[in-house]
Amino acid sequence: MPNATTRPKRTRRHRRAQREDAVRNELVSRSLESAQQCLFSQDYGTAFVHYLLALNLAPALKDFANESFRFTLFKWADELDSLGRIQDLFNCYEQAMELFPVDEVIVNSMGEHLFRMGFRDEAAGHFYKALKLRPDFPEAKENFYRVANWLVERWHFLMLNDHGRNHKYQLAVKKAVEEGCSSVLDIGTGTGILGMCAKMAGAAEVYACELSKTMYELACEVLSANGMADSIKIVHLKSLDMKIPKDIPNRVSLVVTETVDAGLFGEGIIETLIHAWKHLLLPPPNMHQQPLSSPSQTGRVIPAGATVFGVAVQCREIRRHHRLCASSVGGLDLSAVGQIFSPVSCLADAEDSTEPYTTERLSRLRGGYIQLTQPFTALDIDFNNVQELEGLCSREVVQLRLCVTQEGVLDALAVWFQLHLDQDNHLSTGPQEDTCWEQAIYPIQSPFNTVKCGDEILVEVSCKDSYLRLCCAAIIRDGHTFRMDSVTPKILAANPEAELCSALAGLQTSQQKPSCAFMLESTEIALLNNTAYHNSFQRAMSKLLVSLKSTRRSQQSDTELDPIYVLDVSEGFSVLSLIAAQLGFDSGEDKQIGPGTVQAYSSVEKEHHQTMLRLLAKGNGVLESTLEFWLSHVEDDSAVLQRPATEKLWSAIILDCIETCGLIRQKMLEKATLARCLLEDGGQIFPERIVIHGMLVESDTLLRESAVQGTEPTLGFNIAPFINQFTVPVHVFLDLSTLECTHLSEAVELFALDLMNSTVNYTDREVKVRVKTSGKVTAVAFWYQIHLDSEQSVSTFSEDSHWKQAAVVLQQPLTVSRGEWVKLSIQLHKSSISITAVKEEGLGADDDDIREAEPMTSDS
Ligand code: 44T
Q1: Contacts 24+ apart (CB under 8 A), 395-398
Q2: Does residue 207's CB lie within 6 angstroms of at least one atom of ligand 1?
Q3: What is the distance in A from the centroid of ligand 1 to the CA of 716?
Q4: What is the pTM of this model?
Q5: Please, are residues 178 and 201 in contact by the beta-carbon 8 Å criterion?
Q6: Strand 564-568 to strand 650-654: parallel, antiparallel, or no bridges (unpaired)?
Q7: How far does the centroid of ligand 1 lie from the alpha carbon of residue 258, in Å?
Q8: pLDDT tens, 661-716?
Q9: For ligand 1, is residue 192 a contact (CB within 6 Å)?
């Protein structure tokens, strides 16, 4: 029987609960109502607070209000972002994620904000989580693919797939441990592979450090999967920040590391080893003491040392990325701009913004290269000698004289090295070797650079700021020394306005070329050297001008002809607006284009870019007032495309749709849609159409760069499944003309994008491709035909292209026979492309047909 005394109490409690429910319901419904009102009046901040309150009080409503809540959050976050209230923004997301912890859209969006703020690791974590929550979520996938390359650089795959390299490292570590090195520190462990080698070889204590958070976490997973989580201690630290006994209990007898880049020292190995010798390693064996101390009481390093080699080369591909080769493009005389430099420079007074070298795989450079000298030894270094390491950066510049053995254009010094792991095991990163390594490239930017047999090149080798620097100081011919640096004008960047005045003054008075120089990114230099693109643009623009001019003449009186407004919203440095402006002045062959008719707007933002355009305008007789800089301060994408003036519309908008890496620029289609709304009747977007072309290829190289291959464990360890989580199907910056691959089909049209009429665009397409050579389709390579108008087009796969190509690597290779058909399903989501391939059933091989259509080629 129920306790009589409790009954009234329960009723009271019940009533109170009922009252509370009523109050809560009232509050919830009022909050929701207020939230909606605030949304209506675009007061997103208050709306967000109301939603938070309502949904915290009534979680049952979460499903119902999910969409509006997200909308409010995103709007409010954008507002906070533009106000610079970053902490508030992240607090809002934290609160939102507490309410909706498994909402992949919110998680992904938080990632996007983190990414924009530069928190790449954290952003990637969010994209990864969103993708785990919904594996087919296209936005998260696109985002994850975008950051995966930074989190886990592609060379990790290459190195793990390089069996020769793995094996030699393993041998060297095993030998050192067997000789008595019992405590080991793996610096820059990556996936943990060298540390595990040491453990397997029998080392008593193994430690590892890794500075990248993602790689550290990956290594932890790998160690656990291999049952070594307890026997190898790994820390997420840069070795220079490691302390004894906090991070490792005692000094170790062996440091093993592969913290070397193509230029040997770029990953900081000199500093790393000086620090290790001073703080982390046992002292080196003292050769003069008897008896020799045992390896467990002394320290040593793998690799024991390295030899650096170099060679002078002629290479057109390097030249067109680092030097202005074209004297005029699209009718513009480029000489007015003076000298142009790329940011890769080893000049003594080089600025901070410059890099001492760039990297290339010489064997994969378009057009190849020619050696102008014999390879030479630039440097020898003993990593087991701390005095030598310390002396390296302070020592005098070493001068070498190289004999020119082949006449040619001196475009670069190329550098590689041999890594002496120990006395028996060596790795070479040379251009002739079958390795995954790139070479360090020191481009020569001086305009005096032709060399003849018998000339000598004076090369200076130094090591400043822990980078190996090579510099061509002079050419010695017939006993005369021609210094290369004495002709280098001052690079303008710091105070371009002041410098511009003097440069312009110089231009006016003495008719001489200005004695200044500008720095452009190497891709911008290659673009400027792309004459075909600029000339096509000039022709297309000129055609548009003729047609606009004639319609204007028929509609307006001659004295008050409206100007033709042209807007160039290309990324980076672009002279297209100036080409348009010049066409306005150029009566040329076509007398229909009268003077002063074009008002051109450039969206170049950097001050020195604007200076360069002004100089070019001046040098080409273009009135300065016809070229304006458009909204360079505007951050918002949509604002960049505003009207030129009230009541006015653009006559032409130039969009730069393809990134140099070979992908469609993000938000390109949205920009085109916006651009169309701002275009006058008869106006045009350049380009008007883009066609994506593709080809079936078999390429082991692409596979090796995309994932750890095969089912065999790597050196006996289980690594592949972990690192392969960071596999990305789209490969960029490819040069298809030199990539080692077999073409299994002809080039076919994969997809077309109409920028002038989006209603004809599609997002999915199936294309059937006939196999011309039997093999294994591992990837679909693709590039673009950029149609400026119906007559003018350029290919991103042409010889002069500053664009590179890209490829989608298939999840599973597809074995095909000549004559069979492959069905490609292509999807374009926003700007990112995905491709799947299946064999087209029912359509068997029709070998004869193919043979008839096309004679056998060398690769078929
Ligand atoms: N790339 C080679 C360079 N680290 C190899 O975070 C060759 C490039 C390459 N950790 C194409 C082909 C190839 N303390 O994970 C990295 C890095 C880490 C450190 C702790 C330190 N003092 C450092 C310094 C670096 O070490 C790992 C390896 S760096 C090697 C880079 C296949 N493109």
Answers
A1: 395/463, 397/460, 397/461, 397/462, 398/460, 398/461, 398/462
A2: no
A3: 22
A4: 0.87
A5: yes
A6: parallel
A7: 7
A8: 999 998 888 899 989 999 998 999 999 999 999 999 999 999 999 999 988 899 99
A9: no
